[in-house]
Structures are given as C-alpha cells and as structure tokens.
C-alpha cells in the first residue's frame, strides 16, 4: 500500500460570526432589534444611536389597539378589597397565605388543616379567612375544584336556583356529559328544567382568576404598515421604533493617534459598524419585498377581509424573490403587519390549503356559522356539516376534518349541543 498526498477542492459555507449576526438580525422583531442595537452601542464606542422623529401617520396610530389586557393581578385585586376591613394580625396572615396559594384560575389547592399547620394558627382562624376570601370578587375564587367554583357563583345569584345547585354538587359529571335522562329519573324533573339549568351554568365563569393578568403590559409594534389611499396600496417599513445607527466622528477624532494598535482597533470597529448598517439595510429590503409579495398574492385579504386569505406557502414567495425558503421563514418570524383589517402576524398569511382553494380559517368560519344557525333540538352531526359545506359552499372535506376543526373552535359535539326546550 502506497501513501500519497492529494489535493481536493470543495465549496463549503462557513458560518462566520458576521453571517450568524446577519441571520439573527433578519429574524428579530422590532423590539428585539432595538435591544440588540443598544447592546452593540455599548460594545462599540464609535456607534451612536439616534432616535427617529415620529411622523404624523404613525404617531396618530399610537398602537393603542395593540396593547394586551389590563395589568392587574388577581392577588392585588383581592388585597384591594380588604382595605378598610378590621382584621386582626392572625386573620391578615391567613388571608395573605391563602391568596398566595391560589392558582392562575383562582382555585385553592391547599386545605384548612395544611394552612393552619404551616402558619401555626388555629383552624378556626383559617376557616374564617377562607370564608372571607370566598366572599370577595370575582365570585368563585378560592374554590376547591370546578363544581365548587360554579356552586360559589350560583349561591351569589339574586334568586337562588336549588335545582342548579343540586345538579352541580351531586350530579356534575353526568350533567356535563349530557346524560340527562339519568338525572331526570333521579331528580324527577323535566328535560326542559335541565335545559334551563344548562343555559344558566353557561353564564358562569369556570376560571374566574383568569380574568386578571399577572404579567406586564405587552405592546405589539407593527414591523410593516400596509395602507390604501386614493386607490393606491403602499407598503412601509416601520422604522420609527428602530434608532438610526451613525458613526461617532467626534469620538474618533478624540481618540485618534499614530499608534498602530489604536488605528487597528478603530478600523475593526468601523468594519463592525459598516457590517451592522449593511445587515439593517438588507433586513429592511427583504421584509419590504416579502410584504409586497404578500400584498400581491393575498390581495383578497387586504380588499375583503380575513376570511379571504388564500392558501400560500413560503416556497411560493421564495421562488418569486429568488431567495431560500428559510430566509422567508426568518424574515416573517415575530413580525406583525398593520393592515386595513387590523394587526396580523405575518406568518398567518401562509396557510395550508383545504381543497386547494379554501383556507382553513374560512372553513372554520363556515362550520361555526352552520352550528350557530342550527336547530338546537336537532344539532348538526359532523357528517351533516361536511355535507352542507359541499352543498352550500362547494367545499369538500371529510367528516374527521370537520371534527378536528370543530374541536379547535372549542365547540362540543352534537350530542352535547342538543337542547330539550
């Protein structure tokens, strides 16, 4: 066997630090990009960030509609109701512990005995505190489980309903599973009475604690703004929240010397600055190009509304722009578009097809409409819904597909939608 040296030429993509940074910049949201630029400014003393001036159009929007639910926790809401009450130290101690033990739904997963043992208090003190907690708003807070939560809400009603209270506390499982004939026989009531109780229960809240939010306010800033004015569609990259990156010439003159090491340092930082500028420019260009493609291919959505989103893949956009599919995926990740129909996640424009023409959201809308207008005493089965979709809307879907979409809409099956009066 003879050993020899040979040369072989290969092409490989080396993921340099700069290339990785360019990829990261593309997939960052506006707020993430803002944070990254501030980090770069701290690392590179020659980078200066200047806030952009608000223009009239974006300033008038104020993004009020993009704010999440109010920021008040369940605990703070409960404590606020205790202000002014004359409570002894032990009662306050017990209440603080019980409130802190509530889960996000408002349920209490500890017992009086456990709380008393942990706090080294008499059980009667903890019982009094628990009774007071359950008298606060929202009704149902401090419950042990779902039936108990509903019961606590029922006993707060101006007119007590003994049948509803009995059903919830003693026949909850068969009731929610619509085994009403069994309950009818046991309680000697009519199906119409059970239907009335069912409608009453549906007005109650199964998770009262979820009405309150422990998190911070979340603002969604649109990355792209699409508008229609005087017959013309426009696409604008929202750079209002992104500061302008400029080279600090004053600082360069201040530190400039003939020292080769200093000059090398300045040149390295200049290259870093120039690379960030190129990445930002490329990011804006890519997102704008994709936005124009979405406007072109999803014109029905922009002109008519959300129900008219068409099936579209990222590969379709990538092919038009002569870029890789993964580039499209990164560019729309965590990006939002302000449209005439409100704010929309750009990924929502890419929907899988149902019968090659109709988007899933549209099919779900039709399913919800059919169920909304059905005869409650003869609810539509999944197969019947599939037949009606084909008959009325020329949409051919299987029964199991209807069942899947119905479940995603949190709509119960026909057996649980049946009304008896």
TrEMBL record:
Domain (RNA polymerase sigma factor 54 core-binding) ranges: 65-251
Gene3D superfamilies according to UniProt: Homeodomain-like, RNA polymerase sigma-54 factor, core-binding domain
Enzyme class: transferase
Domain of life: Bacteria
Annotated EC: 2.7.7.6
A GO cellular-component term linked to this record: DNA-directed RNA polymerase complex
Gene Ontology terms for molecular function: DNA binding; DNA-binding transcription activator activity; DNA-directed RNA polymerase activity; sigma factor activity
GO BP terms: DNA-templated transcription initiation
Keyword Amino-acid biosynthesis: no
Ranges of residues in domain RNA polymerase sigma factor 54 DNA-binding: 264-419
Keywords on record: DNA-binding, DNA-directed RNA polymerase, Nucleotidyltransferase, Sigma factor, Transcription, Transcription regulation, Transferase
Family: Belongs to the sigma-54 factor family.
This protein's name: RNA polymerase factor sigma-54
Organism listed in the record: Anoxybacillus flavithermus AK1
Lineage, broadest ranks: Bacteria, Bacillati, Bacillota, Bacilli, Bacillales
């Amino acid at each position: 066997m003879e050993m020899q040296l040979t040369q072989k030429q290969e092409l490989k993509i080396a993921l340099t630090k700069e290339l990785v940074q360019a990829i990261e910049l593309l997939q960052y949201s506006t707020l993430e990009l803002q944070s990254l630029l501030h980090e770069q400014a701290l690392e590179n003393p020659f980078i200066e960030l200047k806030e952009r001036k608000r223009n009239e159009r974006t300033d008038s929007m104020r993004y009020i509609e993009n704010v999440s639910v109010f920021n008040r926790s369940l605990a703070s809401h409960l404590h606020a109701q205790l202000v002014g009450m004359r409570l002894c130290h032990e009662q306050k101690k017990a209440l603080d512990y019980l409130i802190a033990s509530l889960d996000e739904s408002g349920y209490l997963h500890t017992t009086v005995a456990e709380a008393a043992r942990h706090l080294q208090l008499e059980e009667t003190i903890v019982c009094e505190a628990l009774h007071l907690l359950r008298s606060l708003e929202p009704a149902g807070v401090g419950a042990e489980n779902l039936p108990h939560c509903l019961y606590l809400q029922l006993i707060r009603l101006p007119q007590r309903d003994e049948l509803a209270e009995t059903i919830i506390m003693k026949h909850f499982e068969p009731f929610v599973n619509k085994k009403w004939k069994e309950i009818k026989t046991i309680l000697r009531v009519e199906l119409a009475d059970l239907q009335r109780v069912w409608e009453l229960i549906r007005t109650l809240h199964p998770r009262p604690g979820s009405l309150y939010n422990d998190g911070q306010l979340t603002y969604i800033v649109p990355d792209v703004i699409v508008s229609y004015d005087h017959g013309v569609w426009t696409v604008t990259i929202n750079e209002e929240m992104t500061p302008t990156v400029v080279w600090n010439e004053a600082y360069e003159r201040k530190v400039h010397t003939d020292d080769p090491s200093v000059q090398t340092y300045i040149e390295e930082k200049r290259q870093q600055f120039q690379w960030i500028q190129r990445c930002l420019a490329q990011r804006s260009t890519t997102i704008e190009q994709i936005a124009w493609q979405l406007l072109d291919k999803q014109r029905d959505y922009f002109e008519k509304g959300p129900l008219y989103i068409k099936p579209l893949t990222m590969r379709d956009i990538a092919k038009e722009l002569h870029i890789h599919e993964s580039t499209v995926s990164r560019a729309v990740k965590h990006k939002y578009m302000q449209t005439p129909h409100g704010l929309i996640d750009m990924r929502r424009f890419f929907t899988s097809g149902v019968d090659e023409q109709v988007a899933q959201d549209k099919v779900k809308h039709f399913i919800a409409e059919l169920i909304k207008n059905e005869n409650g005493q003869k609810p539509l089965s999944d197969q019947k819904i599939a037949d009606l979709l084909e008959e009325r809307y020329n949409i051919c879907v299987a029964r199991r597909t209807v069942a899947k979409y119905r479940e995603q809409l949190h709509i119960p099956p026909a057996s649980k939608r049946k009304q008896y009066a």
